[in-house]
Amino acid sequence: MSLIDKPKARYERLSGKTSWMLDSRVSCHMVGDISVMSDLEKISPVAVSLPNGMYTMAHERGSANLDTKLKLNNVLFVPKLNCNLVSVSKLCKQLNCTVTFFDDCCVIQDRTLRTMVGSGEQTNGVYYYKKSTMNLVNTVNRRCLWHKRLRCPSSEFLSYLPNTLRLVHNTKEDVCEICLCAKQIRRKFSIGQSNVKENFDLIHCDIWGRNVSLCGAHYFLSIVDCASRGTWVYLMKDRSEASELLKEFILMVKTQFHKIIKVVRSDNGAEFTSGPMCAFYQEHGILRESSCVDMP
Q1: Domain at 202-290, CATH from 3.30.420.10, 3.40.50.300, 3.90.226.10, 3.20.20.80
Q2: pLDDT at position 58, please?
Q3: Cα(100)–Cα(103) distance, rounded to whole angstroms?
């Protein structure tokens, strides 16, 4: 009966705006205050049943804002209604959300992301819309979110998502740094034309890694013989160990395989180009070559 009685002098307001009741029985959003509506249009008369059993007619329909960001469409203006009603069924369909009722409140959540859209507060047996946190991601950000959650798939892959998750195509503003680093295209390496025929005439050296191994090593030195593709790996706790390990390897090859290493190819790391290493190369008649930048 309070819905059709004259409003009390103290009209309850939440967050500085007219209160909205969340009603699971009404089939349409309804308001009794035309001042909260916009985009009004005339419609064919719609019969509205009041709590006292009587009927009234709604002749206008428009839009209304629950708060500054959440807008309701197809809202009926019912002149004899002394409250504003939010249809739970229409709300769930319009926002693709779910409404969960508790003894003292209710929660409105996005159906897919489970983020909170708004909430309600129970007062005198009625649930009033409280506020909207608007955690729903907009179209662009939502696409970026699913792009990251699915580990950077292509736009073609995202187009196969269900209609409830269908996202717009990426724009120039949608830049994924991970994709730029991991999916950049490089020309194929041409087949090497190596003139090395004997083992240990040329060896390749490089330093890898920064992760900690079980023995506490952070790096490892790899040495590859160009002719046989034989590979030696030395674990290191510090990069500075590479110089001594390379010297030991060259002497080991001379002793164990009776071979003399003629050329050492590596990048321009200080471990391979320092003064002591250059003196060592010169002493043993070894040539040092620099590998091409960013080439394995």
Answers
A1: 3.30.420.10
A2: 84
A3: 10
- As given in the structure block, the two tokens for residue 270 are 């200080």
Type and span of the H or E element at 141: helix 139-149
End-to-end Cα separation, the chain, in angstroms:
82
Answer yes or no: are the C-beta atoms of 236 and 221 closer than 8 Å. yes
On whether the pTM is more than 0.90, the answer is no
At 223 the pLDDT is 96
The phi-psi region of residue 125 (left if phi > 0; otherwise alpha if psi is between -120 and 50; otherwise beta) is left
Among 2.60.40, 2.40.70, 1.25.40, 1.10.760, name the CATH number for the domain at 13-131: 2.40.70
**197, amino acid identity:** K
Dig out the tokens for 221 from the structure: 């030195």
Residues 168-176, mean pLDDT to the nearest whole number? 59
212-254 pLDDT per residue, tens: 888 889 999 999 999 899 999 999 999 999 999 999 999 999 9
The pLDDT tens digits of the residues spanning 36-95 come to 888 888 888 888 887 777 788 888 888 888 877 778 888 888 887 878 888 898 888 888
How many other CB atoms are found less than 10 A from the CB of residue 21?
17
Distance CA 65, CA 278 (A): 77
Query: Under 8 Å CB-to-CB from 216, ≥6 apart: which residues?
Result: 237
Helix, strand, coil: what percent of the chain each, to 5?
A: 20, 35, 45
The answer to whether 109 and 115 have CB atoms below 8 angstroms apart is yes
Q: Are 77 and 40 in contact (CB under 8 A)?
A: yes
